[in-house]
Amino acid sequence: MNQLRQKQFAQKYASNYVETSVSEATPHKLVQMLYEGVIRHLKVSKVFMEQKNYEKKAFHLNKSLSIINGLKTGVDIENAGDVAANIYELYDYCYRTVFSASRDNDLSKIDEILTIFSDLDESWKQMPSEIKQATRSKIKTLAHQ
Hints:
- By secondary structure, the protein is mainly alpha-helical.
- It has helices at residues 3-24, 27-50, 54-73, 77-104, 107-125, 129-132, 136-143.
- It contains 7 helices and no strands.
- The protein is globular, with a radius of gyration of 17 Å.
């Protein structure tokens, strides 16, 4: 198998793996995957920022922005109260800060958002197991109790 075919096969396998992981994931696991994605893309973008490879920096920061925007739009502000409003505001702050960091090539802003998402990720992983394994309908039931 030539190198191009191997690369295409690996990409297809990785794509199928991600699709399967997402389709089988609980809501808790999906958020965890998104947090990990933001962290991964921010770390990679820092490397490219330091190397002055602005095309690749922009690609990874745009991925981060897309994930953060997805997290933001997934917050149910209408039904989940103050906690949801606060997390929405935090995601919005992170989005604006990453955007600014990209524009200004500011590593310190990337570090700040990396710290926030690392803390969120660590806290998210400490949720009780009944929440981690809950389906979307079970979570809605718990939210309205």
